[in-house]
Amino acid sequence: MSGTVEIARDGGVLTLTMNRPEKKNALTDAMYGAMADAMEEGESDPAVRVAVIRSEGDLFCAGNDIGDFLASSGRVGEANVFRFIRLLGQFTKPLLAGVQGRAVGIGTTMLLHCDYVVLAQDAKLTTPFVGLGLVPEAASSLLLPGAIGHQRAFAMLAMGDAMEADAALAAGLANQVVANADLQGATTEAAKRIAALPPGAVQATKALMRDPGMVAAKMEAEIEIFAHRLQSDEAREAFTAFMEKRAPDFSKY
Ligand code: COA
Q1: 1, 22, 23, 24: which to mutate for ligand 1, most atoms within 8 A of CB?
Q2: In whole numbers, what is the pLDDT of the chain averaged over residues?
C-alpha cells in the first residue's frame, strides 16, 4: 500500500512528515509503525529536544485508512495505530504540530497530545467517530471535554461537528493561526525556540502539566470499546459506504 512517513533531524528538532497526499494522508498500519518507531527513537535520543508532526499536501490527515479498518481483525489492540496512540500519551518531550486543511479523526485527536499547535487559516478539525459506528480514541473522550468543555466536545465527538481554525484558537486547542504559506515557517520557529530551552526543565514542566496514568487508563478503556465497535455491523456499513462512495444507511440498526 502506498504512503510513507519521512523522518528528518535538524539540530534538536525531529520532524515526522506524513506523505500520502493522493489519499489525503490517510494513515496505514505501516505509516503508524514508522511514526511510532521515530517517536521511540526520539524519546531515547537525548539530542532530540522536540518532535514535530506535519504533512505534505493540501490536507493534514484524513484519519485512519478506512480500507485498513475494513480489513482489521479483532486483534486490533496490537496494531501499530495503538502503539502510536499509546506513545502520544507517553512522549516526554515537547510535541508540536503544523496543520493545514482537514484534520480528521486521529488527525485531530493527536493534536490533543501536542504541546504547541500551529494551524493554517484553512485548518478544520473533525472527529467523525460516531458517524463511522466507532467511538473516540487517543484519550480524546477525556482530553477534548477537558480542553473545551463537555457540550462543545460532544458536538465534535458524537455529532461530528467541525471546528475551524479561528474557533480552535479561541477554544484553546491551538497556539497560533497563520496564513497557509507561513505554516511551516511558524511551526519551525516555535520548534527551534522550544529546542533551545533547557531540556530538563522543559520536560519536567511537561510532566507536571500532564497525567500520563490517567490518559493511559482512558486510552485502554477506549481501545477495548473501539475494537469491539470496529467489528460491528454499523461500522461495516459506514466503511463499506465510504469505499463505495455512497451515503451510509443505518436505518436497519
Ligand atoms: N481512508 C482511505 N482512503 C481515504 C481516506 C481514508 N480515511 N480519506 C480519503 N481517502 C481517499 C479517497 O477514497 C480518495 O481515493 P480515490 O482517489 O482512490 O477515490 C482519495 O483519498 C481522495 O479523497 P477524496 O474524498 O476524493 O478527497 P476530498 O478532498 O474530496 O475529501 C476528506 C477529503 C478527508 C474530507 C474525505 O476524503 C473524507 O471524508 N475521508 C474520510 C475521513 C474519515 O472518515 N476518516 C476516518 C476517521 S476515524
Answers
A1: 24
A2: 96
